[in-house]
Amino acid sequence: MKGTAQEPWVAVRLKEATMNSRRRIVLGIGSFALVVGVSAALADGPHAHNPLTIPFFSIDRTSPSIGGANNLHADDILKVPGPIQVVNNVNLGLGRPGDELDELSGSRDPAVSIPSFSLLFSVDRLSVGAVPPDPGVVSMGYPYNVQQQAVRNQAAGDLYMSTALFSLSGPLPSPRAIFNHTMVINQGDAGGVDFQLDPPNSPDDFISGAIDDLDGVGYSPGLRGTLNQAFFSLSSDSPSLKELSPVLPSGANIYFDQNTGAAGGEQLFVSAAKLGLQAADDVDAFVVFDNGNGIFEDGIDTVLFSLRRNSPTLALLGLSSADVLKSNGAFSFSLLASAAQLGLLGTDELDALELLPCADINVCINERAIFPEPATAMLIIAGVAAMRRRNPRRR
Ligand SMILES: [Ca+2]
Ligand SMILES: [Ca+2]
Ligand SMILES: [Ca+2]
Ligand SMILES: [Ca+2]
């Protein structure tokens, strides 16, 4: 970015030296236009070089954006611009007062191998992160992580990417010494790389007051801009659970809606028990790999998931609400990524999950991570340089 802003100037100066005075005036006007153009681009605010597509998403019921001009609900699936509903709650068989959509997902094909991926996740309002931003990632130009955003009271509506890569077997060797993550979508005001949620501020601002909690995200592989079918989970206290599963309602059940265009078509995809969980557990984040029939089959389909705080299985097995777990069914699951491997505390809450196929984490960071507007970036780079001068032995 800094390179592309400077290069035209070098070209202009070289040409200027060889030109007559009349052409110099014309060029002067051109240069002025260039200054204005570059300034306008620089004033564009935080952004990313190759921003992630904004996924479909959901927010929790205490979010200030609930209601509002678009009459948003905690059990709607939302999209930008807006946010507005891409799927209304009633089309998912929901819409009873108190329903809370915990997570949504498209489906990936379990037969298509993804050799390495970064985990994309969101946290809740009480999460503070385990580590400050990775100094190496900051010096690349990307200063935002959960801890840095939590101090500004604006972490809960963001999406972050792990700076470690994973396969479906667990963490892969990493070029980065520290387990961490960096922001890829802000809740508000990041040059369009945001969910248009509250607070409507850039990631540099300190905020007070109520903020939205992004508690579900999902891409819909192969379905551009629409979500014809969806996997979803509800919080344990959602009244509609008893309608969807009269015999064994559970916040850890995952449902499949084969027609999001109308009420009806919702069915159980996989039960809490089949994932190795208890009925009192609450799955609050997941990614589905289904072979396309909307029915979970042991050993064929896979679910990556996280549990909500106070789920009894967490205490039973010493696990964290920010751990990412994996099940192929057969009444069991395993640990895929620990809270620490994501740069989170064991007491943090990971409450929305997606994945980003990625072969080289530094390339993915450079493409997808949010960087500040250049004036702020210069201050941050100066700060890192000063820190390094003070601690010459670091690195
Ligand atoms: Ca959730
Ligand atoms: Ca934020
Ligand atoms: Ca439906
Ligand atoms: Ca969780």
Protein architecture, described:
This protein has 395 residues and is α+β, with helices and mostly antiparallel strands. It contains eight helices and 19 strands. It has two domains: 1-43, no CATH class; 56-368, no CATH class. The model is unreliable at 1-43 (pLDDT under 50). It has helices spanning 2-17, 21-42, 135-139, 146-150, 241-244, 312-317, 361-368, 374-390; strands at residues 56-59, 77-79, 84-87, 101-105, 107-108, 117-123, 159-162, 166-167, 170-171, 181-185, 214-218, 230-234, 254-257, 266-270, 283-289, 302-307, 324-327, 334-337, 350-357. Strand 17 (324-327) and strand 18 form a beta hairpin. Helix content is 21%, strand content 22%. It has a five-stranded mixed β-sheet with strand order 5-15-16-17-18, with no helix packed on it. The protein has a four-stranded antiparallel β-sheet with strand order 4-12-13-14, with no helix packed on it. The site of one calcium ion (CA) has 7 residues, from loops.
Task: For the largest sheet, list the strands in their spatial order.
Answer: 5-15-16-17-18
Tell me the helix content: 10-25%
Portion in strands: 15-25%
Structural category = alpha+beta
CA distance, first residue to last residue: 25 Å
When the domains are counted, the total is 2
Question: How many individual helices?
Answer: 8
Radius of gyration over C-alpha positions, nearest whole angstrom: 23 Å
Largest sheet: 5 strands, mixed
Which segments are poorly predicted (pLDDT under 50) over 5 or more consecutive residues?
Answer: 1-43
Multimeric organization: single chain
Order of helices and strands: HHEEEEEEHHEEEEEEHEEEEHEEEHH
User: How many beta-strand elements?
Assistant: 19
Molecular shape: globular
Q: What's the rounded overall pLDDT mean?
A: 87
